[in-house]
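fyi for ur records
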Amino acid sequence: MHQKPHILIIEDEPTITELLRTGLNYEGYRVSIAADGKTGFASASQGAFDLIILDVMLPDMDGFTLCQKLRAQGNETPIIMLTAKQEIEDRVMGLDSGADDYVTKPFSFAELLARIRAQLRRSGRRAEPTHLEAAGIVLDTETHEVTKDGTPIHLTPTEFSLLELFMRHPRRVFTRETLLNRIWGYDYIGDTSVVDVHISHLREKLGDRPPRLIRTIYGVGYAFHPKE
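which gave:
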């Protein structure tokens, strides 16, 4: 079997680092961490990574400079930049420095994961499938189309992200807190009941009747069971 892509995270904020490490490991990716610019540059220069997630604001060497130095030495590893700055000038600067994509904080993990998959596909590295099928449901991550038994199902972006997560991980149990972090984002402030509301809407649109595809695991969370 081929190994999952190896991702280097260069980020100095522990909360974001742990979110990314946990989420990417859960998806099966191999993850390495560097907490400052110099360490990140050394790791990226010496290691064979499939993708780099690079924060702009780093101790001792900013992300723009680090990216420029990597590109100057011929390193063509796909780079996704993370930054709290949302000005167009900063985005342009990031792309001009050699980054392949640019994500502003706060971000949802689901969005970042989609960006990661897109970059891995473009670079020819093996990524997760974009066409998912289970229990008569067909989900296409590139066109954002969903059908059930051939009938189109119109989902909101949040509902689509929930269904994609469930379909990629059949039978895995997700707690409400995990779903909040993965779909709504690490900065979300609100009650976990929002998860229940969206699950209810998703079930309704899918015609998900008992025994359900999206099952409630009482006291824990939810799991997708395509088969009995």
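Residues 130 and 142 are 6 Å apart (CA to CA). thats all i got for now
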